[in-house]
């Protein structure tokens, strides 16, 4: 999940995949020292085509520069970790049904199986974790199997498993009083998925 942050040199599709990879890395766990260091020195141009992303991307980089890694790791734990109920859920089923491990997760697993994908046994979280969803989108963009990695499959998966709940997750993070760095992450994710939605709409 190590995203390249020199996206100005990448073509649009590679840049999209890298953004999903970056979001997956930031949502799955607190950032590594290497990833955080690269965020801090990243150019503040949009990491994917579209001026709409330049402002939220710049705010994300600025937030990394302003806040220590230790503080960001503590923030991640405060928002998403802890024993029992977290402050903010990262699982799609929670936003779609109000409960974990419900019908939305079963539907997701069926769609993943149709794509030939399955959860790594080493991953403790269920497949509707936001980081896993981002990793699937990254694969559908950058994967080598053109039968799976194509715009049609991307749009289908995005429409079914990203668009219905990612905005709610982003809003939950952005409105949480403990969110600082992750407020910027959520704002960028919200802007990016909005651009993605518009792009897929234009395919009709």
From TrEMBL:
Superkingdom of origin: Bacteria
Species: Polaromonas naphthalenivorans (strain CJ2)
Pfam families registered for this protein in UniProt: Nitrate_red_del
Protein name (Swiss-Prot/TrEMBL): Cytoplasmic chaperone TorD family protein
Record has Chaperone as a keyword: yes
Keyword terms, alphabetized: Chaperone
